[in-house]
């Protein structure tokens, strides 16, 4: 028997959206993480974030199919210097968001935590000096029960 994708295990689009909403609420409430949103953000940020996570976690291509590319996502997060405290607090907000939605499956929590740590400390901080440094052909990373796929 094959294991479901992370996307399916979380409850599909609805489950991923609930997690994105919970994380965004936690991020806005955190005095350090909220700085990342202080200059404004897309009015449908949580839906866009959920679409990205759906795709990254084995679901349909909701983000790349209609909203953007990996390069555009990385570019949005680039050129802001190094912000390790914010990154660590964003990770804590993610863990709290899993509590907020009542995610009880400890293995799923571990894998999603590992994903969020990896993406927060690797992909979205890879170009701290300038958005212009981001290559135009980045491929969206996919995450599975075993970590980074491919």
From TrEMBL:
Alphabetical keyword list: Heme, Iron, Metal-binding, Transport
One term of GO molecular function: heme binding
One Pfam family this sequence matches: Bac_globin
Database matches in InterPro entries: Globin-like_sf, Globin/Proto, Hemoglobin_trunc
Keyword Transcription: no
Source superkingdom: Bacteria
Protein name: Oxidoreductase
Species of provenance: Roseateles depolymerans
